[in-house]
Design a protein that fits this description.
The protein is mainly β and 270 residues long. The protein is built from no helices and 21 strands.
């Protein structure tokens, strides 16, 4: 049976149907004698995934092989993994299809692959759980088209790292509007992020968020104070109105969640 994709169960078990299993009993080719280098996932940027939509990113890499090894005799692709090393029992995120490679020389291939991230339960093997947000190591896998056993797989670890993050949203609302100079303004807001376990947005609790102000006519925001989100991600604080301008909340981000700033809310000070 010919395999068309590089897919991995969320439990970490490799789905060998993703690659190639021979229908005949012929002895398989040995694991490809290749090395991977110059691996870059999503152009080196974090992968940000919302509560439900699939996200697909591109990975580029170089394969170095013996001149005697045909580029068409094996498949390869990037592997995101956790743990000390990459292998068949690792927790892995991989692409649905093998990479595609162009010949640079008799020993060098320039390759591109896609990696899919799915927070929805579209199948048994491709869910993203909240616990999977954060830093993943980057590795790669190569195997001959007639691979039949784990020993036919060539794994390479420690090719870099990438953050897989839960998409964040942030709001800000200043009241009353307009306001008299010297009077109290109340600025409320909420910090939420993707919950991959429920496929909804949920509050991000106990996070420091900066309240910032940009005076009318200015191009830059300055920080007024830092406020911590409640157990539901809510924000609330007060300031004295001094001049026309925009108030916003700004979150610096964490390993699991990207930085985000609310749209500025303009306040007219009378």
């Amino acid at each position: 049976m010919r395999i068309r994709a590089l897919v991995v169960a969320s439990s970490g078990a490799l789905a060998l149907s993703a690659l190639a299993v021979p229908a005949a009993q012929a002895a398989p080719t040995a694991a490809p004698n290749v090395t991977f280098s110059a691996m870059k996932v999503n152009a080196g940027k974090a992968v940000v995934v919302g509560p439900s939509a699939k996200v697909t990113v591109t990975a580029t890499y170089t394969v170095t092989k013996p001149a005697s090894l045909s580029a068409s005799s094996f498949d390869s692709g990037p592997m995101l993994y956790r743990g000390a090393s990459l292998g068949v029992n690792s927790e892995i995120i991989a692409g649905d299809e093998p990479g595609t490679c162009k010949t640079v020389s008799t020993t060098v291939l320039s390759c591109t692959a896609k990696i899919q991230f799915r927070p929805t339960a579209s199948s048994a093997y491709d869910d993203l759980a909240n616990s999977q947000a954060g830093t993943w190591k980057v590795g790669a896998l190569a195997l001959p088209h007639d691979a039949a056993a784990e020993t036919d797989l060539k794994w390479q670890s420690n090719l870099g790292a990438v953050n897989v993050q839960r998409q964040a949203q942030l709001t800000a609302d200043a009241t009353p509007e307009p306001v008299k100079k010297g009077k109290t303004l109340t600025i409320t807001g909420k910090l939420t992020r993707a919950n991959w376990d429920t496929n909804k947005l949920g509050g991000y609790a106990a996070q420091p968020v900066k309240l910032q102000f940009k005076k009318k006519g200015s191009t830059t925001y300055t920080t007024v104070k830092t406020v911590k989100t409640s157990s539901t991600g809510a924000l609330k604080t007060t300031v004295k109105a001094a001049a026309d301008g925009y108030y916003r909340y700004s979150f610096a981000g964490t390993t699991t969640t990207p930085a985000v700033s609310a749209a500025g809310d303009f306040v007219d000070v009378k």
